[in-house]
Amino acid sequence: xxxxxxxxxxxxxxxxxxxxxxxxxxxxxxxxxxxxxxxxxxxxxxxxxxxxxxxxxxxxxxxxxxxxxxxxxxxxxxxxxxxxxxxxxxxxxxxxxxxxxxxxxxxxxxxxxxxxxxxxxxxxxxxxxxxxxxxxxxxxxxxxxxxxxxxxxxxxxxxxxxxxxxxxxxxxxxxxxxxxxxxxxxxxxxxxxxxxxxxxxxxxxxxxxxxxxxxxxxxxxxxxxxxxxxxxxxxxxxxxxxxxxxxxxxxxxxxxxxxxxxxxxxxxxxxxxxxxxxxxxxxxxxxxxxxxxxxxxxxxxxxxxxxxxxxxxxxxxxxxxxxxxxxxxxxxxxxxxxxxxxxxxxxxxxxxxxxxxxxxxxxxxxxxxxxxxxxxxxxxxxxxxxxxxxxxxxxxxxxxxxxxxxxxxxxxxxxxxxxxxxxxxxxxxxxxxxxxxxxxxxxxxxxxxxxxxxxxxxxxxxxxxxxxxxxxxxxxxxxxxxxxxxxxxxxxxxxxxxxxxxxxxxxxxxxxxxxxxxxxxxxxxxxxxxxxxxxxxxxxxxxxxxxxxxxxxxxxxxxxxxxxxxxxxxxxxxxxxxxxxxxxxxxxxxxxxxxxxxxxxxxxxxxxxxxxxxxxxxxxxxxxxxxxxxxxxxxxxxxxxxxxxxxxxxxxxxxxxxxxxxxxxxxxxxxxxxxxxxxx
Length: 680
What we know:
- By secondary structure, this protein is α/β, with parallel strands linked by helices.
- The chain is built from 21 helices and 27 strands.
- Helix 7 (about 235-250) links the parallel strand 9 (about 220-225) and strand 10.
- Helix 13 runs parallel beside helix 21.
- It starts with 16 loop residues before the first strand and ends with a helix.
């Protein structure tokens, strides 16, 4: 478990940045992310509370989620835009709240182009995006002029609403990025063809906005420094565009990495911390205005090292401020161990956004729900016993103790964490160590009495002086009804990962949910030996085909051949559907592609017949098949552990896996624990 020095200081992070007409008090920007509050009833009042809390938490500058300059540019039909006086009044609620605590905030102007989930979408050319069912309409010359006017109007209205500046979104494959690259710009007029023609639109927009808003208004340009798609920009083109944007009036250039349709992960937890800051450094050397870096920076020592190395002038973090609104203050006050760290899971933020839900955070369910989940001191302190120190029990215990309840937390194991102690061993999920470090510190801060190595009984609790009991005992792996399931070849995922049982070179994994994929990740990496001369970042870039020399267009190397597997692994599921179809919307493809690269064979529509010395006998789409394997790992679901409730006479509550165990769900467990603690 990480143990950060309690007296760590971050001199580069806390060096102010003078823009001439405005000063940023430190080098941390809260980057743009869609909240889902922008479109709900009363959403701007909720946004005001959300952003105010982050401004109070010490961040130097906030950039809002993307706001469209017009209806056709909105990320979906009915999504937020800045085009009317009513929009100005709504946004003024947000800017006034941020300014009331001394914060600064910019509005991001985002035109989705061919990414807009709408039948009215427009783009430079009528080329459908692979991630969107709608085909865009190619803009005419007059319609392009209208788009420019709408960008300028959005900036002027943002200024009127009290924003300190705007960020022009020109990366991640959105509208302006689509004009810049030959991949999406097939025009043969003055807005297409040569690179000079293709960059006219972003330059014109920045120039026109600067003219309209004056000199004392922050203008950030989010430049795609690494497209990671075929037909993307070259490094030379990107430098040229950056210099032209400076001349047009931008104060700050932000770093964009990868289009949404790219085949390279850029922000998921499998991406090493700060994996792309080297890109920012190479372009920063060619530019004169302050440059921002981003992507997978989630702790202050990471930010400090990036700034100290000269990779960037500013650090942009988005999801870390969902996880902990006081991130900056805690770093500044030498309380690093108290930071609730973003683990890069995407489960409650990006996955929610792409499902049309409100953004939140797995490790902090209050995010975007600050007006609903209110943690206040209790008027009636209770003595509460909590059984189980997994995610649900930890969330309840720390929140209840913070409110003033007297909490005793029991666990039969020797350490806190429950299923997180399994998850943190899976390659690409080491960030769970940070969550456990955070909860351990919270238990200490709020005086929770932690009793480990003790399987508390119902009788013991009934004879105690507790007022209530919270049951967070979690789950046990379900044993499927397969003939021969007790064969020595068979192990559960707990046997494999937590108990580190040895397995052979040929393995069948029964069950292709999240746990099945985790097991495969564990198995394919167990015997992999990374070349000693390669760092974690270099290994990642090599594995995913990123051009570290920036010599290739788009920064993308040719598709790599499948690696020689260290094991032969079969990932099997009963459903006759795409294996892993129910994984996270924004990360599932990463897991599937990564395992296919490692040679994992995925099979759906499997009927498990029996297990014997010969291996696993199946019927797959009507055909009998025997897979000769050394081991079978069972990942076939879970069953709740809640029997203790039957014998309790004290009032009790079930949370987490103990209440519902169809699939392990830390997001639901932490949310349940937190919400219950606010109500008792």
